[in-house]
Design brief:
The chain is 13% helix and 24% strand. It is of the alpha+beta class. The protein has a single domain, classed as Lipocalin. The strands form three sheets. Strands 1-2-3-4 form a four-stranded antiparallel beta sheet, with no helix packed on it. A four-stranded antiparallel beta sheet has the order 5-6-7-8, with no helix packed on it. The longest helix has 14 residues. It starts with 12 loop residues before the first helix and ends in a 21-residue tail after the last helix.
Amino acid sequence: MQAPGHQSNPGLSLLKGPAMRMSSVSAFMLCCCLGWSALAVSGDWPQLQGNALRTGGAADFQLPRNPGLAAVVAGSDGFYAAPVIADGTIYAIDGSGLVLAADLQTGVIRWRFQTRGGAGNCNNVAAPAVVGPYLHVGTTGGFYYVLNRASGAVTRELDLHEPVFSAPAVGQDRVYVATLGARVIALTPEGEQVWDWDFVRSVVGFEGNRWSGEDWLKSRGDRVTWKDHFVCSRDLCLVGR
């Protein structure tokens, strides 16, 4: 059995159900664009909740007296991942893996890029992250991208073989990403892999196919327990570097 994120995995039905997917772009128009008008007077917001510690703190931020809709930009699907902001540009990924960059003030699209991954590349929830001249993007299709944020050109594409639900955490000269299968990968800003840590092997002590019930039963005997839980669907938090 292949990991989720690849089309042959029946587990993908959990990601593709109609209750989870929206064909309308109205959610993005309402939520994200209202945010533009408010953020127009604030600084950069380069990763989820503003920083790798995920504090969400904006002590110097001042709401305008009359906040309102500043611009409307349509994607190809609903938007479930938080956008990020750097140097007057807002970056976002929609549910179907379309990444776009737009002018923060006017909403004019600067570029679009469609990530790949087939039917499994849906309901994307991981916010992108700005790292210098690059934009890091993880997808539910299992592909991870480092894009030139000025043009949208691909600097590097990595096949992680598992969905990414967790927003990348940017540290000092490193970007950290976690897969749904609980692998944590450290990358350079350019996308070169530095190291890979596997929770399932290192902590759970399981060497088989983590997505195979047969392998788990063969390894554990009559049942698996809460001690064998490994799915990583939450966002990383980085303390220090």
